[in-house]
Amino acid sequence: RPTRTTDDDSFWAERATALLAPLLHAAAAEGLGIGDVLMWLLRWELGPAANILERRHSDWAANVLLSVAKSADRERSAVFSTASNVLAAYFGDSARAVADPTRTSECAFDPDAFVRSRDTLYITAPAHKQAMCAPIIVALLEAIRHAAYRRSRRVLAGEELGTPDCLFALDECANVAPIHDLGALVSEAGGQGLVVLAVLQDLSQARARWGADTGTGFLSVFGVKVVLPGVADRSTLEAFSTALGDHAEWVPSISEAATAEGPVAHRGGTWTYRPNYSPGEIAGLRAGHALHVSGAEGTVVKLVPWHLTPVGRHTGGGSRSPATRAPEIRVTSRVRRRSS
């Protein structure tokens, strides 16, 4: 699904979604590949897909295509352009070859089987191709998301054994995995066997990607937040400072009054309220430490390097000094099954 940022983008995204859905449905019904869908888009040919849908009595999908075909030239051009951009990752021959329906047995991925396993799936994208790959990554995540929901319902109904527990660990999610309803996903997923861990540079990324209201609301949606050193966005720092509340502090004062016997000191003071964590304190977190925020409680915690954790030691990471360890590969987005 195209990413939405502004009102205009939202309109074209919705229109492109309306165009892509029946095209993909027609291709799947006829056993065609993504290359055929891309060809229809690039040539502005809706006739073949409409014929397939009518032959299979998918009248509503055919009507959607007809509405796009009858729209004004400028609008139709923008819709086709937006839809083509969503599939830009398939412009390459190798990508279309992998998606060829005749090769599905070679690279088939079953989301339902995945959420029942203890496997780990790593999804990566090079920095200069993140925007192009994002729609495909989001589509994969959505398939896994709904598979996790289905398994959770089966487990709760007693139809399947096991613990419905799946983890989305999304690094750089604003660029690589911009799930359009991330806020709704986080709020509903916990009760359906899916835990979401999302990593952002700061809240300005969230506001730019999901809008001011949704981006700022992430502080409420995510139950636990971890702020690492290096955040410089003022609004992010102030938002966390405000969320963590303040405390009353007595500020003593001494004043002198002149009397016949000489100056007399009067001790007093006033109560003032100071933030529990000021924006400056949050911005100045020491290296190797982080601010752990749960609800309205904040705690500065010390971070443990991976090679010193129990899992890191078990995999051999603790047996070598950081200088002699093998180079690590940072993934830009990952979906991981949690081990019990």
Count of DSSP E strands?
A: 9
Helix count, per DSSP?
15
Helix content: 40-55%
Structural class by helix and strand composition: alpha+beta
Principal-axes shape call? elongated
Tell me the span between the first and last alpha carbons.
33 Å
Q: What is the N-to-C succession of helices and strands?
A: HHHHHHHHEHEHEHHEHEEHEEHE
Q: Give the spatial strand order of the biggest sheet.
A: 1-9-2-3
* Rg, nearest Å: 27 Å
Beta percentage is 15-25%
Residue ranges: pLDDT <50 for 5 or more in a row?
A: 1-7, 318-340
Largest sheet: 4 strands, mixed
Average of the residue pLDDT scores: 83
Question: What does this protein structure show overall?
Answer:
- With 340 residues, this protein is an alpha+beta fold.
- The chain contains 15 helices and 9 strands.
- The chain has helices at 7-30, 34-43, 47-55, 59-69, 73-86, 93-98, 104-107, 111-116, 130-156, 182-189, 203-210, 212-221, 234-243, 279-283, 310-314, and strands at residues 120-123, 166-170, 194-198, 224-227, 246-259, 262-275, 289-294, 297-302, 333-336.
- The strands form 3 sheets. Strands 1-9-2-3 form a 4-stranded mixed β-sheet.
- Helix 1 (7-30) crosses helix 4.
Topology summary:
Layout: H1 7-30, H2 34-43, H3 47-55, H4 59-69, H5 73-86, H6 93-98, H7 104-107, H8 111-116, E1 120-123, H9 130-156, E2 166-170, H10 182-189, E3 194-198, H11 203-210, H12 212-221, E4 224-227, H13 234-243, E5 246-259, E6 262-275, H14 279-283, E7 289-294, E8 297-302, H15 310-314, E9 333-336
Parallel strand pairs: 2-3
Antiparallel strand pairs: 1-9, 2-9, 4-7, 5-6, 7-8
